[in-house]
Amino acid sequence: MGNDKVRAKKHLGQHFLKDKKIAAAIVEALDAGGCDTVIEVGPGMGVLTGFLSERNFASFWVVEIDRESVEYLRQNFTGRFEIIEGDFLGLDVRPFGDRIAVIGNFPYNISSQIFFKILDDRSRVTEAVGMVQKEVAERICSAPGSRVYGILSVLLRAWYDIEYLFTVSEHVFSPPPKVKSAVIRLTRNGVERLDCDEKLFVSVVKRCFNQRRKMLRNPVKAMVRPGAGEMPLLSMRAEQLSVTQFVELTNWVEANRL
Length: 258
Description:
Low-confidence stretches: 1-12
Order of helices and strands: HEHEHEHEEHEHHEEEHHH
Radius of gyration: 20 Å
Number of strands: 9
Strand content: 15-25%
Mean pLDDT: 93
Shape: elongated
CATH class of the largest domain: Alpha Beta
Number of domains: 2
Helix content: 25-40%
Number of helices: 10
Structural class: alpha/beta
Strand order of the largest sheet: 4-3-2-5-6-9-7
Distance between the termini: 58 Å
């Protein structure tokens, strides 16, 4: 690979996985049972793609924004899948069916945005397997009370079962990143709808973590009418609340909204 290609990939936050055993393990982690479509995000030079294309998926698509990578995939994997040259973050997944699996070595600089995209499409995305920066994986998989527990920890856990699968050394990439990576799996849980206003739930979670060091009465006071009173959760901090408790807090905010 030429220096220009390496620079282009660094700009996109992408590092090429060169260890095929790791690639095979990532692909094996994807069940995709009963899925209409599997979508690979950011295939690059196709190290995951090759293993994915050997599986008997009903439909397999890759989404790649880098033109040189798209050309490489077209030349080396002809007829084995469909290619979308574009940005996954802007992809309308509705034409791909009601049950979609997402997989990829997610670019570090947009990995959180990819998970928010999956959340937006949670009615269709039933499973996701992604390799991300280890710290991001730990944050997503963390439980209440952890210092790294945050917005994505809560929102993803509300609609998905989350598993930290394995850690990946920086030495299996080209160019090697300065941090370790990890592979996680999301599997849609049985929650069709939360027992609260879901849009308000997301808003409450984000507002609370934006002031995560303060007791919850501080971030939510701008959302409720003066004199709304107290509830036990208001003396806690965002990082202490489970999904169920955030649902309870959301219902209290809705009952006492301005």
